[in-house]
């Protein structure tokens, strides 16, 4: 549809995050790095303590009963109680800040409604209903035999969502039949689509590109055929797309 700078999708044997395209995803990646530091420290600390214990107090060791007189260690108990508490506090502070930023809904400039069906997504842009009329369309996966060169198998759709960059956007998600889940990893979004319930989140896209996601809640035999494609463009290109849709 439009030219793009980056193509963000999963890759074979991928074990790491996709590149962040929103402040929330940047926060998730940074929190992951912080947690991995503490996890690595705790892992090696426990391994060293366990190794020393097995070595010095093994059954075949000459000092097998070296610790028989050690019945209470006040300093040690204080350390292994206080230190984990401090680590939990250090971890909790950025976690709470990230959770707050995920739940915060800033006054949006744009609202898009996503409805999950078996097995496709439908979208509605209703902000311009009074001026341009409501924009509604369904988004189906492109069959493998209809893909063009360079398009991604099981990820391409016939109608992409087009959103402007650097714009606060509210996303409303629901379902028409069974549970679905609207997930786009590069944007840090994974929101359940529940029948009879309207869930919401917000996104602020930082850069232009095409961002791929999929339904992340098992919803039946066509679960793998519900890809999500978000194309982030400049405001000028977004206005052009709106005028073409009307």
Automatic annotation (TrEMBL):
SUPFAM superfamilies: Cupredoxins, Cytochrome c oxidase subunit II-like, transmembrane region
Catalytic activity: 4 Fe(II)-[cytochrome c] + O2 + 8 H(+)(in) = 4 Fe(III)-[cytochrome c] + 2 H2O + 4 H(+)(out)
Transmembrane intervals: 35-58, 78-100
Cellular component aspect of the GO annotation: catalytic complex; mitochondrial inner membrane; transmembrane transporter complex
Cytochrome oxidase subunit II copper A binding domain: residues covered: 107-244
Cofactor (UniProt): Cu cation
Residue ranges annotated for the Cytochrome oxidase subunit II transmembrane region profile domain, each copy included: 9-106
Bilayer topology term: Multi-pass membrane protein
Family note: Belongs to the cytochrome c oxidase subunit 2 family.
Function (record text): Component of the cytochrome c oxidase, the last enzyme in the mitochondrial electron transport chain which drives oxidative phosphorylation. The respiratory chain contains 3 multisubunit complexes succinate dehydrogenase (complex II, CII), ubiquinol-cytochrome c oxidoreductase (cytochrome b-c1 complex, complex III, CIII) and cytochrome c oxidase (complex IV, CIV), that cooperate to transfer electrons derived from NADH and succinate to molecular oxygen, creating an electrochemical gradient over the inner membrane that drives transmembrane transport and the ATP synthase.
Protein name in UniProt: Cytochrome c oxidase subunit 2
Organism: Chrysochromulina parva
């Amino acid at each position: 549809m439009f030219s793009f700078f980056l193509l963000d999708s999963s890759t074979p044997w991928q074990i790491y995050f996709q590149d962040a395209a929103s402040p929330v995803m940047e926060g998730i990646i940074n929190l992951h790095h912080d947690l991995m530091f503490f996890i690595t420290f705790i892992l090696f600390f426990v391994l060293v303590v366990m190794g020393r214990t097995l070595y010095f107090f093994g059954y075949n060791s000459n000092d097998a009963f070296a610790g028989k007189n050690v019945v209470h260690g006040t300093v040690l108990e204080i350390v292994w109680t206080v230190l984990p508490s401090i680590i939990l506090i250090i971890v909790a502070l950025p976690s709470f800040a990230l959770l707050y930023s995920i739940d915060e809904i800033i006054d949006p400039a744009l609202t898009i409604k996503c409805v999950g069906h078996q097995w496709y997504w439908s979208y509605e842009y209703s902000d311009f209903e009074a001026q341009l009329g409501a924009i509604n369309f369904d988004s189906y996966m492109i069959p493998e035999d209809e893909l063009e060169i360079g398009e991604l198998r099981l990820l391409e759709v016939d109608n992409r969502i087009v959103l402007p960059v650097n714009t606060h956007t509210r996303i409303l998600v629901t379902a028409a039949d069974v549970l679905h889940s609207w997930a786009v990893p590069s944007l840090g979004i994974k929101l359940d689509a529940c029948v009879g319930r309207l869930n919401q989140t917000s996104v602020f896209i930082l850069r232009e590109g095409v961002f791929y996601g999929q339904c992340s809640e098992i919803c039946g035999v066509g679960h793998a055929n519900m890809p999500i494609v978000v194309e982030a463009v400049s405001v000028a290109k977004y206005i052009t797309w709106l005028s073409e849709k009307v």
